[in-house]
Amino acid sequence: MEFTVDIDRHVEQNLGRMIDYKLPQLNAVMKLAGDYVNREAKINVSGRILQRRTGNLFRSLRAKVGSKSEGYQVDIGSYGVVYARIHDLGGDAGRGHSVHIPKRGWLRRAFVTRKEEIRGLTRKFIQDLLK
Q: Which residue has the higher pLDDT, 52 or 100?
């Protein structure tokens, strides 16, 4: 299960060389934004939304900064825990899909909870970039 925050390719093209010049700062801002959501997600899987049993889901949560053809991104999610997605989005699971797991939204809620902080970080980065 991943949740991706992208900087639109159009924005990147308009900012042109400034982005390349400030790439280390951009990576730091995106890492910080990812860490905000990741910390909130860890709180959510530690009792706020899901009960923590083995700790596997908690330990599998990561925020990875990278780039792709459409722009820069932060991937936030669980790596290697197959049940992470079903507990976030809900659905049918088990043999013959006989068990219904309700939607809990632990990852999506983490993003929504931290959305204003992320907007503030990106706003400040762009303002500093345009100075």
A: 100
